[in-house]
Amino acid sequence: FKQRREHMIPFNEQPYDRLTTCEAVGPGLWLLEPYVREWVNTPTQSWWMNDLANETRRVFINQDHKNIDGANSPTGDSVGFWAGDQLIVWTNDMWPADYFRGYPPFSNEMQMIEVYQLVQEPNGLSRLEAQVTYYDPISLAKPLSGVYTWTRATVQEDAGYRIRHWDCDSNIQQKDANDLTTIRLP
């Protein structure tokens, strides 16, 4: 962690960012992306889309983990079940990626448990809340937990906004001779 933070000092930001080279950010950073999202629930799957990058997470409902090819993937393998009005999700088999920008990456042994619930505030505002715990025997001394929340983007909905395909032009986003991205996000 210290080494990665020291590497950021000359740039005043993280000098390499997966997004600038069109790589999937992984579930940890996916939770933090500040962009429009959609959740689509069916009896057997829940699809979670984000309008930044083409990184749809799929949660297989009431199924076991199935890593049939024995490989990890950018978003991992997510299985879940409904417990009343909560969706409990267990994700494993992810590629190593960042927990958050500027933090050390998690390993391919990282697993996460997410508990989603639609919460109604006393003032009438609804928000989707996720209580997330990360487990990684390589990058964490103990589990790391956080709470993420989203509110409905009614202004965008009223304007007719739709999530579109995110096009990442690999001819623009390049790595330089030092393996740093030439365009960085703050």
List keywords for this structure.
186 residues; 8-stranded mixed sheet; mainly beta
Number of strands: 8
> Can you count the helices?
3
Query: Structural class from helices and strands?
Result: mainly beta
Distance between the termini: 18 Å
Rg is 18 Å
Strand content: 25-35%
Global morphology:
globular
Strand line-up in the sheet with most strands: 1-2-3-4-5-6-7-8
Instruction: Name the helicity range.
Output: under 10%
Sheet with the most strands, sense and barrel status? 8 strands, mixed
Reading the helices and strands in chain order gives: HHEEEEEEEEH
Uncertain ranges: none
Mean pLDDT, as a whole number? Answer: 85
Task: Write structural notes for this entry.
The protein has about 190 residues and is mainly beta. Helix content is about 10%, strand content about 30%. It is built from three helices and eight strands. The chain has helices spanning about 1-10, 25-30, 155-160; strands at about 35-40, 45-50, 55-60, 75-85, 85-90, 110-120, 125-135, 145-150. It has an eight-stranded mixed β-sheet, with no helix packed on it. The longest helix is centred in the first third of the chain and has 7 residues, at about 1-10. The protein is globular, with a radius of gyration of 18 Å.
List the helices and strands and how they pair.
Blueprint: H1 2-8, H2 26-30, E1 37-41, E2 45-50, E3 57-61, E4 77-83, E5 86-92, E6 111-120, E7 126-135, E8 144-151, H3 154-159
Parallel strand pairs: 3-4
Antiparallel strand pairs: 1-2, 2-3, 4-5, 5-6, 6-7, 7-8
What's a quick, concise take on this entry?
The chain has helices at 2-8, 26-30, 154-159; strands at 37-41, 45-50, 57-61, 77-83, 86-92, 111-120, 126-135, 144-151. The chain has 186 residues and is mainly β.
